[in-house]
Design goal:
The complex is a heterodimer.
Chain A: H1 2-21, H2 28-43, H3 48-59, H4 66-70, H5 76-81, H6 83-108, H7 113-116
Chain B: H1 2-18, H2 20-40, H3 49-64, H4 68-80, H5 82-88, H6 90-95, H7 97-100, H8 104-128, H9 133-139, H10 146-155, H11 160-184, H12 190-212, H13 214-242
The chains are: A mainly alpha, B mainly alpha.
């Protein structure tokens, strides 16, 4: 747990440093994710401790959005003033994005037996 | 006696409302309440724990007259963990990396098309209906997981906290109406359905896909990770090239 947290922070720190030093347009933590990913590839597996701690953090990932999300109160004026563009853009683009991504992927994939027999019952799908 | 008690209470209130303890505790309690409501009323996507917690906290802060800045002084300890959590996303990405090889090309094309479609259609729709510049910038990265979306939003001149709101709403919309959209375009392949949910609606879309089918869930997690990466790498770069 403590070891993994140290590794996560070291990766993030390295990411922040390199992003700033090289003036990269990428958030430091994202570079850190790439570093950890590269490390796991080199190592050829995820150590048990990292698997558990990362799983624990990501299970409550949504908790971490709350402080920033509460910032919505400082945007209340904007949200009500721009309600129409915001609602239409969010609904339209989200459903369009889901459909386009899935349609393109399905068109390029070879069909599997798993999908064929479920075609009769599409209502139960995510 | 009553006056002395009131004075004590007022002093405690002044102390607590200014200390980090209050903001931190309120955040955790609100999240627990959100989780409880979500579980209690049948895990409906519209009862998203984050949405409930945010509304609850915004209501309490507004009613008690505590400024967002004061609250955030305490809540920043939770907020800080977004960084290490983003790094931790490397683990599920690695776990599912083996599955990429079989359908790598289809996934790459779908990722780039889907990522661009989500981002551009959001910006275009907001622009057509008169959204402001800050709204458009905050809208662009809203399909990816919050830590990345907020980082990208900051890079392109958006408002990270507004982006966080858009990200959460995007997830809830996809989890609630995504099935309908996928049936409308007649996609039956689990891999494609899951990948679409992950690319367009990050963790909340992934959670929804996992509830229904394991293959869809795995590809949704992959889509979330890959679009997070693609958006973080491409969106700020493209933005700085054209503006």
């Amino acid at each position: 747990m403590l070891g993994t947290l140290t590794i996560l922070l070291l990766c993030q720190l390295a990411g922040e440093l390199i992003a700033r030093l090289l003036h990269l347009p990428i958030p430091g933590p994202v570079l850190g994710m790439l570093f950890l990913f590269a490390g796991l590839l080199l190592r050829g597996g995820v150590p048990r401790a990292i698997q558990d701690t990362a799983g624990g953090i990501l299970r409550h990932l949504s908790l971490l959005f709350i402080p920033a999300g509460v910032g919505v109160m400082t945007h209340a004026g904007r949200l009500s003033a721009e309600a129409l563009p915001i609602i239409l853009a969010l609904f339209g683009s989200t459903l369009f994005g889901v459909a386009v991504t899935a349609k393109v992927m399905a068109a390029l994939l070879r069909p599997t037996s798993a999908s064929a027999d479920e075609a009769a019952n599409p209502g139960a799908k995510p | 006696m009553n006056g002395a008690l009131n004075n004590d209470l007022r002093e405690i209130w002044v102390y607590l409302s200014a200390s980090p303890l209050a903001g931190l505790t309120m955040t955790l309690v609100a999240y627990q309440i959100g989780l409880w409501v979500f579980e209690r009323f049948g895990r409906r996507p519209v009862l998203n724990p984050v949405l409930i917690a945010v509304l609850l906290l915004a209501g309490v802060l507004t009613a008690s007259g505590i400024e967002y800045r004061t609250y955030f002084a305490g809540a920043q300890f939770v907020h800080f963990l977004l960084g290490p959590a983003t790094v931790a996303l490397a683990v599920p990405l690695y776990n599912q990396f083996r599955q990429v090889r079989q359908s790598a090309l289809a996934m790459l094309v779908a990722l780039l098309v889907g990522s661009a479609a989500s981002s551009l259609s959001a910006v275009a729709l907001a622009w057509i209906f008169g959204g402001s510049s800050a709204t458009l910038r905050s809208m662009a990265p809203k399909s990816v997981t919050s830590p990345i979306a907020m980082g990208v939003s900051e890079q392109i001149g958006g408002l990270p906290s507004l982006t966080a709101v858009f990200v959460i709403l995007t997830g809830i919309i996809a989890a609630t109406f995504g099935t309908w959209a996928l049936n409308l375009v007649r996609v039956t392949d689990w891999r494609a359905r899951g990948f679409g949910m992950g690319v367009a609606a990050h963790g909340i879309g992934t959670a929804r896909a996992l509830q229904v089918n394991e293959v869809a869930g795995a590809f949704a997690g992959l889509g979330m990770g890959l679009n997070g990466l693609a958006t973080a790498l491409l969106l700020p770069t493209l933005y700085h090239l054209f503006w």
